[in-house]
Give the backbone structure.
Amino acid sequence: MRMPLRAAIGGISLILASQAMAQTTLTVATVNNSDMIRMQRLTGDFTAKNPGVTLKWVTLEENVLRQRVTTDIATKGGQFDILTIGTYEVPIWAKQGWLLPLEKLGPGYDVDDLIPPIRAGLTVNGKLYAAPFYGESSMIMYRKDLFEKAGLKMPAAPTWDFIADAAKKLNQMAEFRNDPEAELLSTWIEVIDANGQQLAIKEGWHNLEPWPIEHPELSFEQTDDFGLNLLRGNFVASTGNILMRRNLYNKIGGMRNLRFAHDWDFLMRAAAGAKCKLIPKPLLQYRVHETNTTNSNRAWMLFDICWVLAANLHRFEGKRIFNSSDREKSMQDLITLYESINLQGNDKVFWAMRAFIQSLRSQGVENPEELLLEDNDIREKFIGYITV
């Protein structure tokens, strides 16, 4: 029988949802960010000090984690032994009686040393319900040069009304006003190094491909199609380079639970049915350094690449490619598609994924590709087949 545990420490807070004294495996559900990835590196130290105990990590995007763990706690499902929550959940869960106050932390824990706003966010009716081990702040970041060009000055204490009005005067919002049919915008990117020095300007799909394309002149690069060029790679590069209308988000949904390629998958779904545009100005800086997320697990990254293409290629088939009975047009589409996709030696993984997805889709399963993300055993099996 699993029993609730009193202590809660966080990620911002970490809750031991159940005790597993008789078990040898502890399942840890945590958010997929750089801090938690670093925490996972301490697994060896923990298991060395606790022989007979192993850790199983379940990393999820924040919105997915919140939904999964809330459901698990509310239904007493017991899927997770340890899980991370934040300042959003703590007051709600405390009022629901799902947490116990931390009243016996011992003399070695100085509660008064906590940063006051973080402590306040974890306190309900004067009692602390979670012990934070890291915190985050919200801030406004802006380009001074763009503000100057637009004749704007950032006040010392800006209001959200000011931010909204300022945004309307900048390039991307102007593009939306000039093209009412456009639903998503991205820009060229200034690539910089760890010291902030410019390395290059990435001009969308026209240069700096993320992986080699042997004959780019035969690929989708020859077209001016935003969506088809996404089949070559994620030239948008970052969620920070996406500006969209709310109705597009409402129509296609948010990011899915991918570790590396959630933005690429989102862009594929958007570009399949919406007008997306690339602004030919470098309005975003992208820093390249040794601790970039894409460098943390290459096998998993290649799994994501295969998954994105297997899950989304059908959105373009019969619409943007192979959409004509004309033999020459079909042959040209075949050549262009072949010259555009580089699975980096993992073609068999891609085709196995695609067969899995299509077979379930033909049986009426909605979004069957998500099973490859949510079922750890299936995902790990595919990752095991990846050629690095």
